[in-house]
Amino acid sequence: MRETTFTPNRLLVYLAVLLLAAAYLVPLLVVVLNSLRTSEEIAQTSMIGWPKQWAWGNYVIAWGDFCIAQTCAGIRPYMLNSALVTLPATLISTLLGSVAGYAVSLWRFRGDRWIYGVVALGIFLPQQMRLLPWTVVLRDLNLTNTLTGLVMIHTIQGLSFTTLFCRNYYVAIPQELIRAARIDGAGFYRVFWRIVLPLSPPILIVTVIWQFTHIWNEFLYGVTFTTGQQQPVTAALIALSASVADIPQHGVQSAAVMIAALPTLLVYLFGGRYFVRGLTAGAVK
Amino acid sequence: MPAAARTDRRRPAVAAVRRLPEFLTIWVPLLLSAGHLISFALWTIWVSFTPSTLVPVSGWVGLRNYTAMVATRNWQIAFDNLLVFGSGFVLLSVLMGLLLAILLDQRIRGENVFRSIFLYPLAVSFVVTGTVWSWLLNPGIGIQKLVNGLGWTSFRFDWLIDREMAIWTIVIAAIWQSSGFAMALFLAGLRSVDPDLIKAAQIDGAGPIRMYRRVILPTLWPITVTVVVIQLQFAITTFDLVRALTGGGPGTATQLPALVVYDFMFQRGLLARGAAAAVLMLLILLAVLLPYAAWRYLQRRQSAHA
Questions:
Q1: A159 partner at 20 to 30 Å CA-CA among A46, A248, B169, B288?
Q2: Rounded (5°) CA angle B30-B33-B34
Q3: Rounded to whole angstroms, how far apart are CA atoms A30 and B59?
């Protein structure tokens, strides 16, 4: 460990860091505490306060009881929807993106640069430019208001990011390695399976975490293309605050918010390093 | 397998069939991705020139949807808000990110823990962020109520219901959510400053503040440009955060372009107008991204020559 002496300046630095850290933690702390307070208690005081009695029941109600737009099954069905959309879309888009990234960076074929350029530009095309076309595609494929439709959308759109991540990682693999394997008669899949895939775990973790977080947190497509019982949890949270607008249930709502945020928070807690790597990799295109 | 290769050469049809699965694996995902991007963008642009309302129809109305959209009160409010939100959020989140990065660069203990704390909001959905901040900033139950309850009864913090100030609640929540991103990039930049440069400045007797102002910060400006562009891109496409925090209100006080697009397309059933708004959004985005791309290109060429 480096030697550090406590001068007044250093004390100031620590004070600043601690204060800022506290400020960043306040919103999380407020939700956690409120999820354990009764709604009456919150209404009497404010959203910021220590529970007088621990209302664990909030979580039970939030998970399986309260009503969102006439359906009283809590947040559970929407969590399930989000999982059923996020997991397949994450896995498929990562797998396809890794093969595509390998093809454009190492296998090389006619037109690879051109098509990769277009795919990578996809990370800049706003969702608003794709809303109408997706509506038409979903209608024609008879997938409006289905989870399958959302899986398809997130898989195809995710390809831009997954291909970019994997391609930038695979570019560092020496071409000679691939050439030697090809001379030995190894084909497209064998090279991928034997050489590229064993080198891939770091970038695959980054990609999976990135896709998981983004698809789980996505709201616009969820709210546009699904209704009622088919909605992902982000859309359900908005529907929930709309349906309790007259008599707010802040305790239960906080519990619902916590449940909805938990999967990505856990992923961040355990894979934070890879999450940050994805953030900065996405930035330095 | 040289033998197999030889047979392939003699019978090209067989070789083509053998390579079909490989060919499909390469091209199908790439073509799906590139194809949907190009066709979707072109199609939305086309719709913006048609008289479509509830369903897309063909026909040509020239720029009428654009002139009509730019003339609506909604778009004007959204555009003004984007200017306020874009500049306020980007400037403050860059400053905040820089401050956090410099603080974390002081060899403090528990740096990893602090970094995780400043970055965790990025892992959370904007819907969650917006919902939580809508509670904190709600004068009836949030910070104002807390301070009032503590005895300072004249304290007011009601931007959320104030038409003039409501857009700044979005700025606050957005800074909370994404200044950690700026911090991560700046910290990486600070860590890659040439140590010889720092040593030389120390020998010249530069104190810590002078050191940052004269030596370290000037090396960060390429990163600053990148951070600004990415945050601007986020600001231009912001949707979820506003939906969850203010719903665009009070009234239409916190409209942003992305909300106008959604409103016209799916709530008013004016597809062509909504498409025109989406294309306008894209143009604003391009006004930021194209100069950035040119700048990156020049930089890369310069460093290749150097």
A1: B288
A2: 80
A3: 54
Contact B7, B14 (CB under 8 A): yes
Instruction: Please tell me if residue B252 touches chain A, with a CB cutoff of 8 Å.
Output: no
- Summarised one tens digit per residue, pLDDT across range B149-207 is 888 989 989 999 899 999 999 999 999 999 999 999 999 999 988 888 888 888 888 78
- The tokens 């010249």 sit on which residue? B204
Task: Tell me which chain B residue has its CA closest to the CA of residue A256.
Answer: B128
Fold of A76-283: MetI-like fold (1.10.3720)
Strand, coil or helix: what is B41? helix
- 8-state DSSP, B121: G
CB contacts under 8 A, B 164-203 vs A, are 176, 180-181, 184-185, 188
The residue ranges of every structural domain in chain A are 76-283
Asked whether the beta carbons of residue A99 and residue B29 sit closer than 8 angstroms, the reply is yes
**Residue A97: its chain B contacts at CB < 8 A?**
29
Per-residue pLDDT, A39: 85
Q: Among B8, B20, B40, which would you mutate to test the A interface (most chain A Cβ atoms within 10 Å of its Cβ)? A: B40
Q: ipTM of this predicted complex?
A: 0.91
Residue B159 pLDDT: 92
Given CA atoms A268, A274, A279, A282 in this order, what sign does their dihedral have? Answer: negative
> Cα(A116)–Cα(A95) distance, rounded to whole angstroms?
16
Which of the listed CATH numbers 1.10.3720.10, 3.40.350.10, 1.10.10.60, 1.20.1250.20 matches domain B72-305?
1.10.3720.10
Interface residue B271 vs chain A (CB under 8 A): yes
Task: Quote the tokens at residue A273.
Answer: 């390093």
For A234, list phi and psi in degrees, rounded to 5: -65, -45
Closest CA to B80 of B182, B157, B161, B166: B166
Distance from CA of A252 to the nearest CA of B (A): 13
**At residue B7, does pLDDT exceed 70?**
no
Q: Which residue of B has its CA nearest to A261?
A: B124
* A265-280 confidence digits (pLDDT tens): 999 999 988 988 888 8
